[in-house]
Each structure stands twice: as structure tokens, then as C-alpha cells.
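Board notes, transcribed. Complex of a protein with glycyl-adenosine-5'-phosphate.
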Amino acid sequence: MSDVSVPNDVTLMEKVVNLSKRRGFVFPSAEIYGGFRSTYDYGPIGVQLLRNVKDAWWRSMVQMRDDVVGLDAAILSPPAIWEASGHLKNFTDPLVDCRQCRERFREDQLEDLTICPGCGGKDTFTEARNFNLMFKTHAGPVESDAAVAYLRPETAQGMFINFSNVLQSSRKKPPFGIAQIGKSFRNEITPGNFVFRTREFEQMELEFFVPPEEALQWYEYWCVTRYQWYIDLGIPESKLRMRPHDADELSHYSSGTSDVEFLFPWGWGELEGIANRGDYDLTQHATHSGEKLDYFDQATNSRYVPHVIEPAAGATRTMMAFLLAAYDEEEVRGETRTVLRLHPRLAPYKVAVLPLSKKDDLMPMAREVLGLLQPHLMCDFDETQAIGRRYRRQDELGTPFCVTIDFDSLEDQSVTIRERDTMEQVRVPVADLLAHLLPRLV
Ligand code: GAP
């Protein structure tokens, strides 16, 4: 990204939010009904980008390893899980109400505990009350206490409660991991900053089970590995940092946590936490369920409760970071060109097939080229507007390559490939098209 041309950070945020709406990345939810604050819908381009973020994570965490397996656990879950995990008791924010204006605030986010930021009232706050962030509902037709269920606030617990199932069915042994991608729900008091903090979001979590004496070494391994994942997918080092938690930030069971942070327009914000959780989770579930959640090591003839290293990332938040990092503007022939310099693996469309004119003569060949590429690559097909405008649109979607079919193509069976970042064009025979594109898109 060219530093000179990047808009300053306040406008960067506005520009990315506007682009997201205009080009179909992210829409505010329930907009035609006045909106539903804190949830978002992912449009035709956004769904593709989000899917590519999740696929890139799955590829590196599951596909490319032989020590991690996948899982897709239920979202709706009984209170027993959250009792054991500690969420029923501890997953809370302290809230205060202003007696004067009736607004509600998180006590830990107030600058001055004696002044209400809503109405300016002095000493108008109630005592703080703990507010649980889990969404509660009822499973079945009766709204009784016995029917209470929760929407999971994290994907992690699904992996702990399936530890034995996975261990036995996959024949893995520690060190090994269970990975999961899926929706989580938190009744956040202060959602905001676009999709950074929402009440419905997606997580990508790994629970990596290790012999206790290897925990520190694996914690360090995952800190390095996860940081590198963001760099490899195009986040510049100047916008990414690893921040170890101070002792007073650690949960009581964690002997170490580090956050991968991105420099958002308002400052550093967490993309992912990597935590050394000890044997807390398996022990809690074993105690509450009465099931053994441990591992018998035949080599040493001993039984132990594995320790857990947990890299826990947000998919939707990470997608936003990739968008912000990729956004660029540059001057081209007196005009501003907006371009998303997304890593090709993340780009929603890999190729746009563009017949130079809408005239009937070019359509059969353009459709043929599309048919050749579609089984291998996500493609867009656009026959409207002048070619320059169509290139600009694809630049804004982050499409790495445009393939143009012109009248010469009918004669020489070749097409023009235009590259997004350099705007350079090369002529390539249709027969060589896939071989030219594929290596440049990994
Ligand atoms: N199992 C551990 C766990 O859930 P977390 O730090 O609460 O840890 C992990 O969540 C990641 O999930 C965060 O780093 C963030 O990227 C994402 N996340 C958490 N709450 C979120 C929210 N309200 N909106 C969007 N993403 C969120």
C-alpha cells in the first residue's frame, strides 16, 4: 500500500463503511425496518470475502496440518455447559443506570464515576449491577426454567465437551487440536465501530491439547504462528502487533495470554487472543459432568489432563481489518482510483470476465472463457458500461485480474489480462489462460 495516498484514518473508516454498502460487502441489518443496531448482513461480495477469510484460516489450521481436526458444534446449548465453564457466573459487565436520564453505562468504561456522560448529572448513578452477556432463550414450547437454553457466547466450549468424542473417533493423541468456525452471540452493552463489536459475530477458534510439560513451548509456537498468518495474508507489520497481557489482565486460570492487535482507525484493537489455559476447561467439565476428560498415555503408562493452548480469533472482525488494510487510493491520469489491494486468496472474485462491447459477436466467446474459468475460480461477468468504469468497479472489489475479450480475440483466440495493482496488461492465448492465472492466485 502506498503510504502517501492513504486517506487519514477518520475518513478511512468512513470510506470503507461507504464502500462496503455501495459495493455489497456489508449492509446494516433490517435497514428497511429502520435498522437493528449491532448486527450486520454480508452482501454478495462480503459473503465471499468472509468465506475466504474463514477458508484461509481453515486451510492453515486444519488442512495443512495432521495434528488438528475440525468440528461444528451446536449453537443452542443447555445451561450446564455455561455453569461449568463459569460463564453463568463470570461472563458479565458491571452496569450502572443514571437515575436522571435513565441511560445505562458500563461502569468500567466511565471516565468519571460521579458524572453522567449522557445528561451531565452529578452523582446520579445507581450501584453497579452485573449484567450477563449471554442471550437466554427457551428450547421447546414451554417457557419454564427447565427449558432455559443459551446461544453460545464462544465456540470454544463445544470443543471441550467433545474432547472424548474427538479423541476416540479421530485416534489423535496430545499434542493435537480441535478447530471450529461458527457464530457466537454476546449481548454487548456497547456494540459499535462497524463490525468490530457486534452482538452476533463469527469466531475461528482452536483448542490445542498438550501434555502439561509442553504447554509453554506450544503457547509460544502458536503466538508466532498466528501472528505470521495475518502478515502472510497482507496485513503490513506496521499495523500489527503482539501484546502480552499484564498479570492483572489474565483470567484466574490463564498462565499467559497474548493478543494479536491491529491498528484500527481509532487505535489498537484485538483480532485474536492466544491463551495458555492450563487444565481449567477439561477439569471443570469433568467435575460438572462426571465424565473423565483426560488422556491415558500408553508409552508412560500414565493418565493426565491435557493443558489447552487456545488461539481464538474473530472472523468478522478480522475481515474488517483486511478491508481497512487493503483500502488504497491513488491518482491515475488526474482521477482518484480506489483499489482494494487484497491478498488474492482473500479477494471475493479472482477474475472478472469483461466482453469489450455488449455486441452479440463477442458474447459467445466471452461466455466460453467464463465457462473455462468458473470451475476453478470465483468469477464475475460484467458486460455493462465503458470498459474503464468496469475496471474501476473491479478495483473496488479487489479483483486481482480482469480478462477482456475484444474483437481481435475472435481472430487470434487471445484475451487481454489486466492486473489490479499495476494495471499492466498482457495478451494471452485462451488456451494458456488458466495456466497463466492459477499460479498468480495462491
Ligand atoms: N474462547 C475465547 C474467546 O472467545 P474472546 O477474546 O472473548 O475469546 C475471541 O473472543 C475473538 O472473538 C476476539 O479476539 C474478537 O476477534 C472476536 N470477538 C469477540 N467478541 C466480539 C464481538 N462482540 N464482535 C465481533 N467480534 C468479537
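The longest strand covers residues 267-278. Residues 154, 156, 186, 188, 197-198, 201, 203, 205, 270-273, 310, 312-314, 316-317 surround glycyl-adenosine-5'-phosphate (CB under 6 Å).
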